[in-house]
Amino acid sequence: MKRTTKTIFIALLILNFFALNAYGLSYDASNHYELENVIIEQMSKYNPDFNIKYTGSLDNIEEVLKNTVDKNIYLKSNISEVHWDLSSTKHVSYINVKVNYIITQEERIEADKKIVEILTDIIEPYMNDHEKAKAVHDYIVLNGKYDENKLYYSDYDLLMEGTSVCNGYALLTYNMLSKLNIPVKLISGTGTGEAHIWNMVKLDDYWFHLDSTWDDPQPDIGTISYSYYMLTEKEITKDHTIDENQDIPKSTKKYYDYLKELSHDKLLAETGLDMYNEENTAKNESDLISILKRKILYHPLRISIRFDKSISQSSLESAMSKLAINDYISQIGYSPIVSDNTGEWNILNLYIKYKETPEKITLDFAKNVYNTATEVNFNVSAIYGSKKVNITNDVLIYPYDPNKLNISKGTLKFKESGNYNLLFEYQGLREKVSITGLNSNAFDYITNKKPDSPVNVKVYDQYIDFSSVNQWPFIENGRTMVPLRAVFEVLNCNVKWEEASKSAVVEYGATKIIIPANSATAYINGKANSLDVPAKIVNDRIMIPLRFVSEAIEKTVIWDDADKTVLIF
Questions:
Q1: What is the pTM of this model?
Q2: Structural domain range at position 191
């Protein structure tokens, strides 16, 4: 697959010694550093013609001017030509810079506006940086087409014309991720021997290489590849060469390993990196057929499998033909076979099209908050117009920790109390649900009926019933005071009373909070914190300011004045 980047022409410095008044004086610079900053600032504003009054040294001035652009890959990627004219007197020089950009300033503004619109559409508030980066990558790959004629070079072209060379792909990736405050770089070099440009992206503490251009299959068939998604330097340099003299960070962390550490099952499945799981690695044709049969149950749009290099092309085709006999499949395509990042296995990427696509999928849960001692039954349906099909046994569910939840064939059992956000997927459609499991003691405190109380507390869309502790919340000095045990057992905290110190103790994961009675000081992991209102004993119950402890265990607390209810998320 041929990829190119536009060659940047930098005109040689022309020492013309024009008359002093040849240029209008717009900007001042007294040394090389200031000169570079002026040039970078004006080029970043897409200024096509600007002048600099320069009073610094002329030593190596030609190299300084040229390197200012060369070492800034973002500027270089947005420029087609640069011309420098310099005139000097004994004490001052006048530099005129003329720049031809690949887009105009107006087009830059239009492109940035379009980027904001796209990000508003594809980015959800709950997304982490990993999910945001994937959303950007997927949008670019699905909506872009590589310009084989090499007429279009910018991210503006990719946005407005739908086509560009690698320069446009890399710039759009850079500009979209930058607006999401995700650290990103442009990397220049070669791909299969031709000039090329791609990105590096920082996710959490690690940098990865990302080549959105090479993840857009040729010819464009509306599919996404992840072969060049979040690679190490060792992985990207199998067929990419990085230009020298670039300040690039180390990239040694394998993305598969990192997603496994983070338990990002959803991302592993969506990117096809779950093929590195043992259960998705085929040692022979029988394994290959078995994996395909298992994966097709979820009606995915894409299937990625690792397979032994001894498996022949005819065996691959035989396995795919057995998959194609399912009457709901209309087409199966696959990308060229490549080696995995170990070099020891091959990768099969299948793209599936179905005869029917549901309008949506629906989830049927009796409620969202359950006693962990009970078994939860649910149903998932695919809606085809007036037809409703039960897909409970076939839907893909992620992410969830099997050590905390057991989900199988329409039943859910809690192994550990807590709040779980589950995503159900079928044939490219997704539906979310938030499920909360409370232990029996905590479950006794909640109700879906609003209590008749001047002040109420609502958690997981349920009200807390304080009648069992014979003490209701009240407001003191503008702070909501609540019975500690009832609230924080519902929040899945361990609560106990230490008689010797007359203190309540709240444990939530690694956080330990100690609240002495009749004290304005509480302790979070041993560190003293002031309370706006001292904790106090009322009716043999310790009352504490709700906001302090909720925020200490990283909960969001909102006061609904109209409903006189404290909302905890």
A1: 0.72
A2: 105-269
